[in-house]
Structure formats: structure tokens, C-alpha cells
Design a protein that fits this description.
By secondary structure, the chain is an alpha/beta fold. The protein is built from 18 helices and 20 strands. β16, α15 and β17 form a beta-alpha-beta unit.
């Protein structure tokens, strides 16, 4: 990759078009080609709530270094057509010196874009595609993007061959010819958007989504059964798990609804198989009663909730962090359980694997709170470490015992679980309050003992350093969780370059709340900025319910779908300092 002196460390690209125009395909090929060139990057998609048609945009950020979040503004916008583009124009603001490439036959440039004064270059993509047998405009657009960015043609062609090979050699050849035609249209007066070579060379980048990473984490954690009902934006977890589980001797069942799916995984786990389901907010709401059943009967399960905008059907294709309250507080009665939130796409792997480990070790339900911005983002990352957790489910081995007490009061609160059919391991398992043996009971002492047992085994477990990522040393702290961590990290790097030091405390373990660890991480703090992507400030309220924050606190939050970006966070800190 040759590089000019004006090459940038980061370039953001939006490829837009109506549904079926192939904008997302062009974006995915472009991202993969960047990975083959040794670059880093990510891609998220913007689509409407309709099942077919409507608007579609591939939003990419390509960098010479690992990237934590999407861009807040774009260097290059390529419009295959302008149909319905006004619906998501606010999600892809252009930089003042941005470049727009569009087909003059595809409609008028929207006023919101034309009035910005950015450079607009017209290319007849439709006519160019017609000149190629089997040609398509999205491949012309791909060539235009690659030409402006100065990507190696070999990397691009290799990815096209791999991605389109199943459609036939004539389609591959048409794609190549269209890409070459697009590159040839990049005029000398168009602003170059070349990228600097990567800081770390290598062709071992993983191109993975958060949903795929969550699936891999579940399998690495020992999951061998999954049951789920498809729901946006979690369905890709099921699509990834189905073949993966079959290769490991496991199985996936597509249930008729969310009620069936969670009860299926409770049954499978009761039978000795580590089990998982995946859903989004509406599905989690249906599962809550059965999560309480798993807590009461001490059957380990994992529920991955890929959050979206709510309430009700909300915005299925957009991101938000607003399932926090239902995940933490949703069960009726006192039903202690685990809530874990991945801090990045790569962390979806670790956090889901860790959740399986925690659920199995403590015989408890665990909820993984991912969201659309993590789950459906395609990201180029370095290969993650293969972490191994040693603890496993405590199993009753069987044999001659006078009485098998399934829910015995043990030192760590975890009692050996008999797999059905184990000699001497018969017991009653249901959701009623029970004695240590499992026999239903309404005694005050049994109720108190089992409530204490379920509480203490989770509260006293050794979670190690995984409870949060604590980075930096400053009396100014950003406290956040989940997907907001990437934007917070980038904001902190920007502020550091300006001479402003900010510490990060990003919670991975939401429940149980590690109060002592949290307050220790905040020692010496004067100012705390609480950051989250919700309308009502659920995370801030949760923190205040758990402890007194030991400093002056400001709270920056808003609902989706417009994600909070690094520069907005920087502005909050700068304004606070200068106040």
C-alpha cells in the first residue's frame, strides 16, 4: 500500500441506497478488503423497520489502528440512489471538507446534504454498470470507494472472488469489471482519502460481529444446547450457533416463541447440558417468569439480550441500552441472578463465555446485555486470546447416601446438582419454596434459608478483576457500561492529547453490584461523568440505588438511535472543566 504525506489514520465512508441496491454488500466487501490489507475498521448498518425495501446504508470507519466506535461524521458518501435517504441523513453527517459521489440519474441530492457545501462529484453508475454483462451499480460504487481510498486492487479482487464465488464465475467476473470501471472514474480533482499503513502489520485480523462473537463465547464456555425464537437484532447468534453446535455434538432448536425457548433451555440444563438462548427486549419480557423459575430451582442458564430501542416493538433495527432495568429488576420476588455487559464487539466473546462460566459455577441464570450497535457491527480485530475458566458445575456423583439434599446449605451456597437418572439423586425440582431436600415447603425457616443461600452464593463469589475495566489515573472519571465504553475510550484518548487526564470505569458485571470494588476505583475522585444510552437515565439511577457517588456528578444520556459519540463526550468534559 503506497501512502502519501496527506494520508489519514482514519477514514469514514457511507454507502447508501434503497433496499436491494446492494449498499450493504458493497460495504461488507470493502471492509473485508481493508482487513486483507492489514487495516482495522468497523461497519454498522442503518436500515428501516420494514422487512423489505426502504432505506439501507453501510456505515464504515477504516483505521490504521484498532477502532473502538463508529465515526461521528463522514469523509465520503457514495449514493447508489437517493431513495428514502432523507430517513437516515442525520445518522451520517458529512465533514465540512467531505466528498459526495452520486449518480445524476438517481435523483436530486437531498437539501440537507447539498446545503452543507461539501464537494459533489457525479458519476453515471447505472450507465457504467450497463456496459458490463451482469454488472451492478453497487460494484461500481465499491470501485469508487476503493479508488478514493487508495486500497490495493489485489486485496479487493481477492475478497470479491471469495464473496461472490457461490454465484458463479460470470458474476465474479462482472464484479471485477465493475470495480475496475469504478476505480477508473476516480478523477484527479477528487480529494484523496488514503489511509496510513497500520501500526501493527499482519493478515491475521478477524472480521466478526458481536453476535458471532457471543455465539463463539457460548460454545467456548461449554454450551451444547440452544433454543430460541428469531428476533431482530439477535437472530445472527442463532444462525451462527446452529452449525457450530452441530460440529461439537450439540444442537439448536428454533422454538415457536420465547416462552418455549427459555423453558427448553431450562429443561436441557436440568438434564446436564450448558444451555443458552438469545433474544431482544420484547422476548426478554416474555422470559422473565421462567428466569425466576431458573433462579428458584437453581438451574444454570444464559440469556443473551441484544438490546434495541423500546418500549414495545420500538425501533427493532436501532440500538439502545434501555433493557437495563428489566434485566436487573424484572423478576418478581427476590430472585438473585447475574447480569453481564460486554464492553466491545471483541468483548462479546469474553463476556458471554464468562457468563456461561458464572451461571454454571453458581447454578444461576445469567443475562448478557449486548445491543444492536455491538451485535450487528462488523469489526476487524486482532485475534482474541483463548481464555479458559476452570470452574465447572458442581455435580452429585451418585451412590449410597442416606438422604440427597439437592438444596443443601453449603459454605459457598452451591449444592451438588444431580443429573436425572443418577442413582440416589432423586429430588423434587420446581418453582415452589422448598426444603434442603427439595420438598415444597411454606415454613418460614425454609424460605429464609433458601433466600439467603441464593443471595449469598452470588454476592460472595470471586469475580476477580473482570467486574469492570478500570483505566487511567485521574480525579476526573467517566463511569459507563456496555457499548458506550468504546466512545468513552476514544474521548479519553482525544482529551489526553489536549493535556486533559480522565479515568475510565466501565462496568462489565452489572449485577451483583461490586460496591466495594466500585468505590475503591473512585477513590480520590472529584468529578464523575455518568454516561449511558437511555432516555430515563436507568444506569445513573441504578448506581445511585447501590451507593452514594463520592464526588460531584454529571449525567450525560439520551435514547437511541443516534449513538453518543466521542466528541460529544469530550465537549461534556471540556465544558465542565471551563465552567
Amino acid at each position: 500500500m503506497t501512502t502519501s504525506q496527506t494520508a489519514s489514520e482514519s477514514v469514514s465512508v457511507a454507502i447508501v441506497g434503497s433496499g436491494g441496491a446492494g449498499a450493504l454488500t458493497a460495504g461488507s466487501i470493502l471492509l473485508a478488503a481493508c482487513g486483507k490489507s492489514g487495516l482495522y475498521g468497523n461497519m454498522n448498518r442503518s436500515v428501516g423497520p420494514q422487512i423489505r425495501g426502504g432505506e439501507a446504508a453501510a456505515l464504515l470507519r477504516i483505521c490504521s489502528h484498532p477502532v473502538d466506535c463508529m465515526s461521528e461524521s463522514y469523509d465520503l458518501l457514495i449514493a447508489i440512489d437517493w431513495n428514502n435517504a432523507d430517513r437516515f441523513a442525520a445518522e451520517m453527517p458529512l465533514k465540512p471538507d467531505g466528498l459526495v459521489i452520486c449518480d445524476p440519474e438517481s435523483g436530486e441530492v437531498p437539501d440537507a446534504i447539498a446545503k452543507t457545501g461539501v464537494s459533489i462529484v457525479e458519476v453515471n453508475m447505472k450507465d457504467l454498470a450497463k456496459e458490463v454483462a451482469g454488472g451492478r451499480e453497487n460494484m461500481i460504487a465499491l470501485g469508487l470507494a476503493a479508488g478514493v481510498m487508495g486500497l490495493p486492487i489485489e486485496s479487493l479482487m481477492a475478497i470479491v472472488s471469495a464473496k461472490l464465488s457461490d454465484k458463479g464465475e460470470h458474476i465474479v467476473e462482472a464484479g471485477r469489471n465493475c470495480i475496475e470501471a469504478g476505480i477508473a472514474q476516480v478523477s484527479s480533482h477528487a480529494r484523496s482519502l488514503e489511509i496510513k499503513p497500520p501500526e501493527k502489520q499482519g493478515d491475521g485480523r478477524w472480521l466478526i460481529t458481536g453476535n458471532e462473537a457471543a455465539g463463539l463465547g457460548a460454545v467456548r464456555g461449554g454450551v451444547r444446547f440452544a433454543a430460541a425464537y428469531p428476533i431482530t437484532p439477535a437472530t445472527e447468534i442463532l444462525e451462527w450457533l446452529s452449525p457450530a453446535l452441530s460440529k461439537t455434538g450439540g444442537a439448536l432448536v428454533q422454538a415457536e416463541d420465547e416462552l418455549s425457548s427459555i423453558n427448553m433451555i431450562i429443561g436441557a440444563s436440568y438434564g446436564g447440558r450448558a444451555s443458552v438462548t438469545a433474544t431482544s427486549g420484547p422476548g426478554l419480557a416474555l422470559m422473565i417468569e421462567s428466569i425466576g423459575l431458573a433462579a428458584a430451582s437453581e438451574v444454570p442458564i444464559v440469556v443473551v439480550d441484544v438490546m434495541r430501542g423500546g418500549p414495545s416493538t420500538g425501533i427493532p433495527t436501532k440500538s439502545e441500552q434501555s433493557d437495563l432495568n428489566i434485566a436487573v429488576y424484572g423478576c418478581h420476588g427476590d430472585a438473585p441472578h447475574i447480569v453481564v455487559a460486554p464492553l466491545s464487539v471483541a468483548d462479546c466473546l469474553f463476556s458471554t463465555q464468562w457468563a456461561v462460566h458464572l451461571a454454571e459455577a453458581m447454578q444461576s441464570p445469567a443475562i448478557v446485555l449486548s445491543d444492536q450497535s455491538l451485535g450487528q457491527a462488523h469489526v476487524l480485530i486482532d485475534q482474541p486470546a483463548n481464555v479458559a475458566f476452570l470452574a465447572q458445575r458442581k455435580i452429585f456423583a451418585g451412590g449410597q447416601v442416606e438422604t440427597y439434599n439437592r438444596y443443601a446449605l453449603t459454605a459457598d451456597g452451591v449444592s451438588p446438582m444431580a443429573i436425572p437418572g443418577t442413582p440416589g439423586g432423586q429430588y423434587t425440582a420446581d418453582g415452589l419454596t422448598h426444603s434442603q431436600k427439595g420438598t415444597p415447603s411454606s415454613k418460614k425457616s425454609d424460605h429464609q434459608d433458601q433466600l439467603d443461600k441464593r443471595r449469598d452464593k452470588i454476592a460472595n463469589f470471586d469475580y476477580g478483576n473482570h467486574w469492570a475495566d478500570v483505566e487511567g489515573d485521574s480525579d476526573m472519571v467517566i463511569v459507563t457500561w456496555g457499548s458506550m465504553t468504546g466512545a468513552a475510550r476514544e474521548a479519553i484518548r482525544k482529551l489526553s492529547a489536549e493535556g486533559v487526564s480522565v479515568k475510565l470505569v466501565a462496568l462489565r458485571l452489572i449485577a451483583p453490584f461490586m460496591k466495594d470494588n466500585f468505590l475503591k476505583a473512585l477513590e480520590g475522585t472529584r468529578r464523575i461523568l455518568v454516561l449511558e444510552q437511555t432516555h430515563s437515565g436507568q444506569f445513573h439511577q441504578y448506581l445511585r440505588a447501590q451507593c452514594d457517588l463520592p464526588a460531584e456528578v454529571r449525567h450525560f444520556h439520551r435514547p437511541g438511535p443516534h449513538l453518543i459519540g466521542p466528541e460529544e463526550i469530550c465537549t461534556q468534559i471540556r465544558d465542565w472543566i471551563s465552567a
